[in-house]
TrEMBL record:
Species assigned in the record: Allobranchiibius huperziae
Name of the protein in its database record: Flavodoxin
InterPro entries: Flavoprotein-like_sf (IPR029039)
Amino acid sequence: MATILVSSSRSAQGNTRRVASAIAAYLNADVISPAMATRDVLARADRIGFGSGIYWLGFDQDLVHQIERLPPMPGKDAFVFATSALPEPPFRQYLRRFRDLLEDKEFRVIGMFACRGAATWGPFKMVGGVSTDHPDETDLIAARAFATRLAP
């Protein structure tokens, strides 16, 4: 089963890149940037993972805009992964909103995964950062376990 991961990782720590690598290694997947995620490229995959760090309570805008530009992809299996310095707040459920975006494009979302990721920018810089030890080995083991549940 051909799998592609579309991943945006902007942090200096490479939080999302590390999670994408853990998932990709288990699924034997290629990891590409949002700019490379065209309809033709995605059409060649049986399953597509979409992931990014969470920035200001949302997924990376380059990734979101790339998905918005896609035509409908009816029945194509997709999954979501994210890293975030803080837990998802109930008033801004970014995982659900991102899943809804994929479902609006007729993807069949088969799973979602999120873990902590270090943040040392903006207001977090003043306190020395938050979640600075994440993703840790436990997070990467959880990412691989998530990948095992996606395997056919």
